[in-house]
Amino acid sequence: MLKWQHINMSGLVVLDLLIRRRNTKVVAEELGISQSAVSQSLTRMRQLCDDVLFTRGSRGLIPTEYTLAIAGPVAKILTDFEALNTEFSPFNAEWATQTFTINIPPPAFSFIGPHLVREFRAQAPNCRLRTVYLDGSELEYKLELGEIDLALDGRLGTNRSIKRKRVSTTKIIIIGHRTRFPTGTISLDEINSAPHIAWLASRLQMADLNSEASAMNIRPNASIVTSDISAIPALIEMNPEFVAFVPDFTFQSTVSFPNLFELAPVFPHPPKFDGYMYWHASKSKRASLIWLRKIVEKSVARAVEDFEKPYPLINECLARDGL
After folding, report:
1. How far apart are alpha carbons 276 and 244 in whole angstroms?
2. d(Cα 106, Cα 113) in Å, to the nearest integer?
């Protein structure tokens, strides 16, 4: 019988890794200790458990029936201890040295990134920030594993273990070419007859966009769907018959084509796009991730604030050019 009162956490950590890795050398390298130290820890655990725990096989260590029986409880003890340690341990950003991983679409990072990096570096100068971009079920899986700490995306599924908070609400604007819409306005009939370019930071946003379009009596007619917003100006410049539906702040931060303008609105209530940040429920109370969520939320708010000025309408630009 296992003598729990004599067990220390380091012994359980070694045992847990040996069950999963089946190799003392690999475990030693993963823990940053010598192979002999792993062997000594295993010897002590064998004495405390009164079981050999592992036998040697041609492909590594083979756990005994007893080891397999206690594998689940040992893993749970370590998980609960880690949660207890991280949940109630204060996070000192100034002295922390960890790496944070955020999932964010590239166009959104070009908009939010400057504010996020500045705030991140100011508060946590010794930490590292890593950005990736995944989507859908793969993103949810990585959040659950803890390989991604936080996600900024338009929409994820309804997994109850994924928590979310809205961090922005963005107006969807219509971009057109000067030669196609010289008056700077566009009617509903013209919208429905023109081929569309739709920008999506995520595949899962298509449902949201189609829902908004239907509410405005717009027939979905997306001939081109792209996640690369920087390509849209060139697409319309070369193909002026297209109109593009994009978030206002994102387009403002990238467009440099003088012939492209936001067309005067034809809707009493322009379509909106809500941006959320997501994290796994098991990490909700972790001090370091509470800090990270606050940093991200603050950075998004500042980025949106910087781009609150309306994009120039075509009539204003014509007047500016003396035309």
Report:
1. 23
2. 9
Topology adopted by domain 99-166+275-306? D-Maltodextrin-Binding Protein; domain 2 (3.40.190)
CATH superfamily, domain 168-273, is Periplasmic binding protein-like II (3.40.190.10)
Number of helices followed by number of strands (H, E) in the chain: 12, 11
Q: 């084509």: which residue's tokens?
A: 257
Render pLDDT for 83-140 as a digit per residue (tens, 0 to 9). 665 555 577 888 888 899 999 887 778 778 899 999 999 999 999 999 998 877 788 8
pLDDT digits (tens, 9 = 90+) for 30-70: 877 888 889 998 998 898 888 999 999 888 899 999 999 98
How does pLDDT run across 8-24, given as a tens digit for each residue?
788 888 999 899 889 99
Phi and psi, residue 273, nearest 5°: -130, 120
Q: How far apart are CA 109 and CA 253, in angstroms?
A: 11
What type of residue sits at position 165?
A: K
- Quick one: tokens of 126? 């010794």
Amino acid 243 reads V
H runs (alpha helix) in the chain? 9-21, 24-31, 35-49, 65-88, 106-123, 136-145, 188-193, 205-215, 232-238, 248-252, 287-306, 314-320
